[in-house]
Amino acid sequence: MSSAAGSRVFSVEVFPPKTEQGIGRLEREFAQLASLSPAYVSVTCAAGPEASERTYRTVVWLRERLGADADVAPHIVAVGATRPSLRAILSRYRALGIRHLVVVRGDAPTGVATMTGEFPHAGDLIAFIRAETGAAFHIEAAAHPEFHPEATTAEADLTHFVHKVAAGADSALTQCFYNADAYFSFVDSCVRRGLALPIVPGIMPITGYERLVRFCAAAGVEIPRWLRLRLDGLAGQPETLVAFGADVIGRLCERLLAGGAPGLHFYSMNRAEPTATLWKRLGLVRPSQRPPGETTVSAGEPERCPAHRMAAQPSVEESLVELVEERPRAGQLAPSNARRPSPPPRC
Ligand SMILES: Cc1cc2nc3c(=O)[nH]c(=O)nc-3n(C[C@H](O)[C@H](O)[C@H](O)COP(=O)(O)OP(=O)(O)OC[C@H]3O[C@@H](n4cnc5c(N)ncnc54)[C@H](O)[C@@H]3O)c2cc1C
Hints:
Helix content: 40-55%
Bound molecules: flavin-adenine dinucleotide
Radius of gyration: 19 Å
Mean pLDDT: 85
CATH class: Alpha Beta
Low-confidence stretches: 292-313, 322-347
Largest sheet: 9 strands, parallel
Strand order of the largest sheet: 7-6-5-4-3-2-1-9-8
Structural class: alpha/beta
Number of domains: 1
């Protein structure tokens, strides 16, 4: 994989599938995502050892799929983690040749009020990883341009972000947002506070109205009134809504790049087409890149994504994808939760 354009970094995020259906989807969709040659692929992680194992297996699969030099960045979550569990995870990833991590606090799973762990905030975890592994990993931290839902004040949230960076983050990926000014204002505030790290906008393609509303409500992300009303009006016309959403997000990306954003990180939700459409519009697909369905990598395809073959309840992400884009499965969507349990990380 390679960075798609100049020194800017264009990357994608996937989540570890939990069900047979989800594994099949990732296998199918990832061929097209790989054909975009993202600079790196990040893999989300939920709290707890089983989730961590799923992420690890997905990372292994991606490395087999993309080649030993491919930049694959597992997410590491603080919630529920202990020093020994973290040491074990870090040592496994180092043995695999992983050099890139996305380090976040995470949220307690749906229905669990709190989860004990030794790292109350992402900054504590970042400091621990730095102390344990020195410069072995490039560390991405999460940034919240519209401020984290638990923030007492914007200033306090910024101060915590500054401390998190000081703990050892190399760059940051943002929560999604639909207002470019929120991003520019956040970056300006960081610069005024002396930060110089790249803060890469997280981009969530719009593929469904309900999903967007649920995500954003739980993540504290504002959907501008004009956009909400337009999407609401298209709720019964999925194809028109997707085309409209692609245009809105395309314009948002263009504005961010014109304003100096150091790249874009696409939350693919294990769906290739919405991200691929945006990459085409932004001119990130180079002529040498192969058409969808073919990958640019040579490592041969393992027969199945080994993320998890065990039968399991779908993850929150899978439930959301199914709710909007596939057969609805009543009762499997965590109520009023978004992409990640209570609250989700982004819309
Ligand atoms: C790019 C990205 C990737 C993500 N990936 C995942 C994932 O894989 N899995 C997952 O479960 N979630 C993920 N999330 C969601 C994320 O875990 C949630 O948004 C979570 O609620 C906050 O994570 P954080 O790392 O920003 O936390 P923190 O930086 O710890 O901040 C959380 C809150 O605590 C406050 N805070 C921070 N430090 C202190 C301090 N020292 N003292 C007092 N208050 C403090 C902050 O102001 C903020 O309100 C991701 C989010 C983003 C943006």
